[in-house]
């Protein structure tokens, strides 16, 4: 009997490894998925309860009200905003909209583990470019990797999992070097946590360069990871292409309502982000004071470049009550959560150091 063949590309797909979860009944801080430690605002819970009454209906396919609210908050036209089922899905739709089979997508590495998977599934070929010192993106090398076969360059800022943000001057030089028919995707999943005054402004780059698309999400700063909602900001022609490549009714009505209420509650939510930034800087400073080599972080996580020790460090941290995310042979990413979690992580790291 012959069997249904699967695409050959699937065999080589790197797995997406979700952050560890505590076993039922065990107490541990989950610092393994860059989640927001705060529960949803009461207004968000109320909006979800409201929207729950309508789940027999399809959602608004174009998320009209949410799209307008996002556009208003960013000062761009609604025709430039495309929502999706998390910005990971939006990235897949961006690639589906522009990549022909075999086109090259230049990407930094190590970076977000969803990138190689999305590129391969789009039928494109990933061209990884090593990071520079200090876990920074090497914008010069990314530009140099562009060939006539390149259709897209992915720029993750701040970079997941290492933490630094791309600087404005680096991005300006890079955008001048990249041909105008190559799409530059600025993935700003952590933009709300950035405090580096030299950091690039993705929306300014979008305004200045027609080939720039900005990706953002409600999963991290807005604390809606479980609802799956993100968006792209693109020039209207590109946005229409991304919309055409999107899953119909991709964003649930629950997610749409929760995101709209979150935009209205932005002050309250950004106060939480400020508190997470304080914890991040405390974790970073504490680890450095213990002698760990930790790159700058402008996101809600820190990176420990532990090489071969990554997996054993993460396993021991888990036993000590903090779940962190190892990247075997490379490093460990620690998300920033509750102050108690920072305390426990620093306590564990100090014993692991000796
Ligand atoms: C978390 C993350 C996203 C967002 O994922 P969602 O699908 O919106 O939850 C996108 N890019 C990077 C680099 C991330 O770390």
Plain-language structure description:
Residues 30-343 form the Aminotransferase class I/classII large domain. It catalyses: an aromatic L-alpha-amino acid + 2-oxoglutarate = an aromatic oxo-acid + L-glutamate. Its EC number is 2.6.1.57. Helices cover 39% and strands 15% of the residues. It is of the alpha/beta class and 354 residues long. It folds into 2 domains: 8-30 and 267-353, Alpha-Beta Complex (Aspartate Aminotransferase, domain 1), CATH 3.90.1150.10; 42-264, Type I PLP-dependent aspartate aminotransferase-like (Major domain) (Aspartate Aminotransferase, domain 2). A 7-stranded mixed sheet has the order 2-8-7-6-5-3-4, sandwiched between helices. Helix 5 (114-121) links the parallel strand 3 (104-109) and strand 4. Helix 3 (64-74) packs parallel to helix 10, helix 4 packs parallel to helix 5 and helix 11 runs parallel beside helix 13 (339-353). The radius of gyration is 20 Å and the shape is globular. The model has no long low-confidence stretch (mean pLDDT 96). The chain binds pyridoxal-5'-phosphate (PLP). The site of pyridoxal-5'-phosphate has 14 residues, from helix 4.
